[in-house]
Amino acid sequence: MRLVKLLEDYTRVLTDAISSLAHSVVRQTTSSAFLTDGKKLVTDLDQSVVALDADVAAIDYPNPAQTAHRDELRTAVTTNLGRLAKRLNLDYPGNEPALLSSGLTMANTSGTAARGTHDLPAPTDVELVDSLSAGCLYLHGKRPAGAVQNLARYTTDRALPEENWLVAVGGGREMELGPFAGGTKVWAKLASLTGSTSSPVYSAIVSRIVQ
């Protein structure tokens, strides 16, 4: 039987993606129907990412001491992501729907990860389509073999560098983005992950105007 568990080490998450990932996990864990008292589970994570966001907003050009402090704040966020994953792995062993609903990354416990296969090719046939939820879009595509989770980057401001786009993660075949105001144009790209992916390979950027 395949062992299902969450990745517990988030130290390799890209610096610019830490806050977005943490906020996504807080939101998804809190609202999960598969987890008991999700809001309580993410209290420490929520507090740590709020502290990081406040520091980033307050200081545009940190000096060395401020940079070291910001690194400590980021470490606190990644540590709390790992603690949450460990807690969920203990509380929901093998319960894939519950673990996926947290928004955390699924670990790849197959032999391919042990052999060093970390990065997957980009998903194919990626597109944005209208969602049944008002103001939302679905992002979906064909995942390569071995994928355990999807990573999306999206924005409503194409002028932003792609590393500053919003981040969403999910384990299903499609991801709901939004809600956005009607008439908003959304750009997005998609990558597929194993439990040990270090350099996600993204699809071409797709776009759609929200109805």
Structural class: alpha+beta
The H-level CATH homologous superfamily of the largest domain, spelled out, is Immunoglobulins
What spatial form do the alpha-carbon principal axes imply? Answer: globular
CATH class group of the largest domain: Mainly Beta
CATH architecture of the largest domain: Sandwich
Mean pLDDT: 86
Low-confidence stretches: 109-117
Measured as a percent range, the helix fraction is 25-40%
Largest sheet: 4 strands, antiparallel
Q: What is the CATH topology of the largest domain? A: Immunoglobulin-like
> What's the total number of strands?
7
* Number of separate helices: 6
Overall tally of structural domains: 2
What is the radius of gyration computed over CA atoms, rounded to a whole number of angstroms? Answer: 17 Å
**What is the ordering of alpha helices and beta strands?**
HHHHHHEEEEEEE
The strand order across the widest sheet is 4-3-6-7
- The amount of beta strand, in percent, is 15-25%
**For the terminal residues, how far apart are their CA atoms?**
44 Å
Characterize the structure shown:
The protein has helices at residues 18-31, 38-41, 43-58, 64-91, 96-101, 111-114, and strands at 124-130, 137-142, 149-155, 166-170, 174-177, 185-193, 206-209. It is α+β, with helices and mostly antiparallel strands. It has two domains: 15-101; 118-209, Sandwich (Immunoglobulin-like), CATH 2.60.40.10. A four-stranded antiparallel beta sheet has the order 4-3-6-7. α1 runs parallel beside α4 and α3 runs antiparallel to α4.
